[in-house]
Structure formats: structure tokens, C-alpha cells
Amino acid sequence: MNFTQTILMGIVQGLSEFLPISSSAHLVFTSNFYKIFKDIPISEQSTQEIFLDIMLHFGTLIAVVIFFRKEIFEICKDLFSGIKNRDFSSYNAKLGLYIITGTIVTILIALPLEKIAGKLVFHPALVGILLIITGAILFLSEYLSKQNKNKNTDISFKQSILMGLAQGIAVIPGFSRSGWTIATGLFAGLNRQTAAKYSFLLSIPIILGASMVYPIIKIDIAQALQYNWGAILAGTAVSAVTGYICIKYFMKFISKFSLNIFGWYCIIMGIFTAVFFNIFK
User: Is the pLDDT of residue 10 over 70?
Assistant: First the structure.
């Protein structure tokens, strides 16, 4: 693992975590493209590579926390106040409860799918096919959203559960987390900005949990000391900066334009990847 590889993957993670194009799929593609050109077997994945993936996600977590810092502060303040006073009537207190609810649903769905998701890392062609499905979901969400003239700006308990369910399913590489959660929000009647904002806020507990739990359970300290920490930290920093810029402009984009452009991208990228990795197995 070197600086070129980690910086490239940091850029890929920062862009694809918040755009509805599946960051996990693009990390799988980038990693395996690199292995093919370096003549490294695709079936090999070191603990250092897994840890890098986690740190790149941690970089995008930093980005979303900084971008939504004011909203996060208000949500936490009202949520703790609601717990203390047993009054969750304010919108931010409710939103905090909805994020907790959505996170619990995500965990219940994602845990049984974790082994399948881990195996797909070594099957990039199949991940490409799943990315095509994500593209189709984006097109469908846009179509159904246009049929619904009464779009909500406030999320409900039911919508939080549905979006948590979508986030859990999106643990599968190729199923975009932001794509599936935003699409589900549109299906459920939310407007674009509300669906995107809740999608990003909902990602915080899951990424934070994964960043803390996996290293404690899976990483051996002696082994970790051998990692290329300079390259890992460089990739993490690049992921954070790229992710922040991506959130900033994606929130402006989604308020004016449809997700169809990302649907086309997912389909074209999925087809290309499926064909490429079937040829270079």
C-alpha cells in the first residue's frame, strides 16, 4: 500500500459516499483495478486494506459532521433536553429519535448481510450488476416522486424506519447507501433536500460505530504497527476534504436537478465493470 493508492481511494470515497453511486462499489472497483494492473490476485485482501476502507469512511464521517455541525448540535441539545424533561415535541428532538430508530433498523438488517457483503469484495463483476440495479432504483424514485405533488419537508417515524431499512440493505456493495436512502425518502413522499439531509445524518452513527468496533474486534495491535500509517492518514484526510466539497455542492444540485444523471452513471459504470472483470478474472 502506498500514498498514490490511498490518495486515489480517498478521492473515490469522498466523492462516492455522498453521491448516489455506491462508495463501497467504487472502492471495490478501484482496489481491484489496482490489483489487476499490479498483478496481485483479486482473492487477496489484507487486514490493512480493510482498515483503510474503514478509515476512508471515517474521513467522510468527519466531512458530514463538520458540514452539519449546527444541525447536529441542535439535534443533540433538544434530544437530551427531551430525555431530561420527557418532552419530545420539538422537531429536532423527534429527528434525534428518528435517527436512533433508523440506526437500529439499519443494524438489524445489515448484520445478517455482513458476510455476503464481505464476499462480494472478491466479485467485482457481480458488484457491477448490483450497481445497475441502483441506477434503476434512482430512475424509479424520480418517476414516482414526480407523480406525488404533496412532498413533505418534515420526516416521520414511518419514513425514518423505511430509510433505515434501505441503509441496512445498502451494506451490499453496489447498493448505494445515499442512493437507496434518498430514493426511499422520495418514494415515501419527502422532498429532495429533506431526504438527502436525513440520509447524511443517518450515516453518522453507523460509520462511527463501524470505525470504533471493527478495529477493536478484528485488528491485532502488533499487526497494526506494521501498517503504512502515513499513507492511511493521507487517504483519510483526502477523503474528508473531498467529502465536504461533495456534500456542499450535492445539496445545491439536488435542490434543482433530478437523480437521473446518477442513474445513467450507475448503469453505464455497472455494465463496464461487469464486462471488464469478466474478461480480466
Answer: yes
